[in-house]
TrEMBL record:
Matching Pfam families: Pyr_redox_2
CC cofactor: FAD
GO biological process, one term: aerobic electron transport chain
Family (UniProt): Belongs to the NADH dehydrogenase family.
Ranges for domain FAD/NAD(P)-binding: 6-323
Keywords attached to this entry: FAD, Flavoprotein, Oxidoreductase
Cross-referenced Gene3D superfamilies: 3.50.50.100
Organism listed in the record: Candidatus Pseudogracilibacillus intestinigallinarum
Matches recorded under InterPro entries: FAD/NAD-bd_sf, FAD/NAD-binding_dom, NADH-Q_oxidoreductase
Stated name of the protein: NAD(P)/FAD-dependent oxidoreductase
Amino acid sequence: MNSKPKIVVLGAGYAGLKTTKELTKLFTPEEADIILVNKHNYHYESTWLHEVAAGTINPNQARFMISDVINPNRVRLIYDLVEKVDTENQRVVLENGELTYDYLVFALGFETNTFGIKGMAENAFSIVDIESSRLIREHIELKFAQYNNNPESKESDLTILVGGAGFTGIEFVGELAERVPQLCKKYDIDRRKVRIINVEAMPSILPMFDKDLVEYAKKSLADRGVEFRLGTAINECTEDSFIVGDDNEEIKAGTIVWTGGVTGSSVLGESGFELTRGKVTVNSDLRAPGFDNVFVLGDCAWVMDEEAGRPFPPTAQAAMQHADICARNVKSLVHGGPLEDFVFHDRGTVASLGVTDGIGSVFDGKPLKGKAAAAMKKVVDNRSVFLLGGTKTLLKKGKFRPF
């Protein structure tokens, strides 16, 4: 009879994959069975998806095979879709089967949140995974390829509308500012015919940065052809437009991408967890309230900053820090030791504005902009790949292209 505890990790994003790696260091094969469940047989760097969507990097650069970094002889790898967690019976329902668990790590990542904007879910693209990002890339290029060869083409077909001016939206338009001139040259199109329009209901962009850095970012992007419609609410998304503002102005476009919000995996709700804005507000030890053996991490969790009275930002660095504490706390549960509270170590934030430009706040608030910020962004991206995939994966997938 197998008396070893069974630890099941759901999701191979930043939090899930890092947790799995840490668990293999903390437990011998004789101490515990570790199972990792993921929809795909690869991990993708979700903070690189805007580059895939714009077409500035190849989709394969942003992902690597899970079996290249997790030994299948050490961890049971299951590639399947999670439908529901039956917490009462400690059971995970998959599309093609089911699993039982003694300890569960829920890290299934994010889904798009359209905040109920009419037509947005049906008519706009979203940057959520490799395939959705690849679809955007291909759609944009198709619009350029068709423009001079289709007598029914309209100039608005070359307009790219981006809803939302948070991290993903701004980094995406920054990559588009790099990619559009290349597409214009490739398909013999006047650059002045192409519009990149960013629409945001709030009065500014990137609210996590100070005013001077925000102004720098806006000017940098505007100088490269990005138009901003700030303080402009999106009332509706049609097949080829946003309807915006109090006067219901229509902005036509050939490509519409929504980046304005995300929420935790819908499996949380299907499984009966208590949710706040689509996520679980976890205890200080990262366990779901009411459950001794269920941890919720990454984009599925609100982890409270008690001093600030609000959740920590749901970033990749936070997700990987969740993983470290979670793995140690699982070990403590198995062996009867004390649990640790999560303490966030903020190493700063950097946003890219294209290949050679960016803004950031690092090392206790030191501001960065321009090439220095772009270089730091590459360091951050490479560090993530190294922590998850090791040196071999970093050498294959890392960003080493000089400016």
